[in-house]
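Researcher: Let's continue the batch. This sequence belongs to Conidiation-specific protein 10, and it's 101 residues. Same format as the previous ones, please.
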Amino acid sequence: MTPSLKASDKHLPTHKQQLFTTFNMTGTDNPNPGNFANRPKEEVQEIASKGGKASHSGGFASMDADKQREIASEGGKASSGSFEPGSEKAKEAGRKGGLSS
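Model: Same format as before. Here are the structure tokens for Conidiation-specific protein 10:
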């Protein structure tokens, strides 16, 4: 039996209300339902039966070889961010370092 969030529970802080919601969705009162130890055995077996197959098909490894080469040829070049390298604004930001204003 899973508890329901009752009108009398509305006084609880939001994180406590979230715990109730998590309980209702997963059948566990553990605040970390993503942990396999907190999941039903059948659900864990279903996930394990997929044998490491990702739930999505994206990523570098799934790209065609030409696209991988194109990306790899950039060899770690970072975006210059919002500054032009060597600009006065970039120099000023560098001087400030981690100082807060």
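Researcher: Any comment?
Model: Residues 7-49 form one domain.
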